[in-house]
Structure formats: structure tokens, C-alpha cells
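Worked problem 6 (solution included).
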Amino acid sequence: MLDVTVIEDPAAAAASLDPIRGRLLAELAAGPASAAMLAGRVGLPRQKVNYHLKALERHGLVELAGERRKGNVTERLMRATAASYVISPLALAAVQPDPDRFRDQLSARWLLALGARLVRDVGTLITGATKARKRLATYALDGEVRFASAADRAAFIQELTAGVGALIRKYDSPDAEGGRDHRIVVAVHPTVKPETSGAAGAVDASGMSEGPKASEAPPAVPELTD
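Solution. The predicted structure is:
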């Protein structure tokens, strides 16, 4: 079982978004089970569960883990193909976000478009590497920082941009034969806090901002080259 897999096919995405099928995927991610076993857990007739399992299997979201004999019946034990799933923007190719349509480094929506492109591109790379049976060279850095003030946050962004920009200029070799292009995405956003009081998630209000006040000038952030 994979830790995470990316769904690119629109029909597979639609299948995974069905609430009942989503529940079945969650159950099968915990371990193999038959339609009869799942029926008791989700409160549905076995025939109905079997119908949904066949749909999930058709889209590669579940697979046969084995079979067992129970009386005069042979039960198929199914398992999820991954512990978790991510739907790629390719599933909505005609309306997927395009971060090249506009560039605004202080826009949360542009950050969202960049994130969507990251999911799409890495998902495509994973699919290609899996088919070619090759390892995929990637790197990610994840961390948290608490800023004492908005001014500190702006200063951090300026230093981060200058530092990353300097590294890009140092190592960028556009004319190198045999070289390979790599995309760099650096994101800074307020931390989303764990679910509390029935809310889907809370965001630290100190990080919320519609933009600089009239008396403030936005931070001078030089644009990074792609």
C-alpha cells in the first residue's frame, strides 16, 4: 500500500468523492476486509457495499488482497491501494488554477494556485516514475515560525526572498548540456490550528490581513525567476 497516491482521472475523482465510497476507502486503508465485513461497519446491505467496491476497484482505488472460504462462499478481501488520496487539478483540467495568469506574491489565492500546480506536477512525476520504475529526486522543507510582529514577518519575507534569489542566481545554468530544470516553491502562511469547537479549522487571527494599511508600504519583494 502506498502512503499517498494522486488521482488524475475525473471519473476516479468522482468515485472517491462519493461519501459512502470515501467511508469504504477509509475502512480499507486500515486493513483488508470483505463486503460482508464492511456491510456491518457502514450499516449497508452487502450487495450495496459490493456495488461500491466494484466501482472503486474499476478506478484502481482498491485492489484484491486475497480470498477466503466461508461456508459455501468464497469472499474477496479488498484493500485500499493507498493510505490517503489527493485529487490532482488535472481531474478538472479545463478549470485548473493557472499561477502564470497573474503573479502576486502577497496574494493568498496565487499561493493556492501555486499549491495546486505543485500537486499536479508532482503527481504527474510520481506517475511517470512509477511506470518507469525509477526513483524520483525531490526535496521538501517544512517548519513553523512565530513572528513577534507584522514588521518581523515582512523582514523575514525580504530576507528569505533575497537568500533564495541569490541561490537561484548562483546555481542556475540555463545553457548546461544535460542539465534539468527544477521548480522552486517557497510558501509562508499563517498556521491552521487543530479543529476546535466544531469548526473545520481555525486560523491564527494575528496572521490575517487583507493587505497593508494605507499608512504602510508593502514589503519590497523582488520577483524570483522561474
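Discussion: The helical segments are 10-17, 19-29, 35-42, 46-58, 108-132, 150-171.
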